[in-house]
Design brief:
By secondary structure, this protein is an alpha+beta fold. The protein contains two helices and five strands; from the N terminus they run E-E-E-H-E-H-E.
C-alpha cells in the first residue's frame, strides 16, 4: 500500500482529504505509480510538498481505525484528482 505524507512528517501522519460531510479520509493507493501521479497533481496546487511512502496494509488500516479516521483504497482502476480547496 502507498500513502502520501507531508515531507516534514513522514513518520507522523498521512495526507487526507475531506469528504462531502467534512470528515477526513486517507487515500491508500494499491499502486505506487498512482500515488506518485497524485503527488505530482497535488504539487501543482498550493499544497505542501508530499512524500510517497510504502506502508503495510494492516498497519495503515489499523492506524486509521485507532485514530477514528476514515480511509479509502484507491485501486489501479480508480482515477482521483486533487480538488481545489
Amino acid at each position: 500500500m502507498w500513502i502520501l505524507t507531508p515531507d516534514d512528517k513522514t513518520d507522523e501522519g498521512a495526507y487526507a482529504v475531506k469528504n462531502a460531510v467534512g470528515e477526513k479520509v486517507v487515500f491508500m493507493f494499491e499502486e505506487e505509480d498512482d500515488c506518485e501521479r497524485y503527488q505530482v497533481l497535488l504539487s501543482a496546487t498550493d499544497h505542501q510538498p508530499m512524500t510517497v511512502l510504502e506502508i503495510s496494509d494492516a498497519i495503515a488500516i489499523a492506524a486509521c481505525e485507532r485514530a477514528n479516521v476514515k480511509y479509502t483504497i484507491i485501486s489501479k482502476d480508480d482515477i482521483v484528482i486533487p480538488l481545489e480547496e
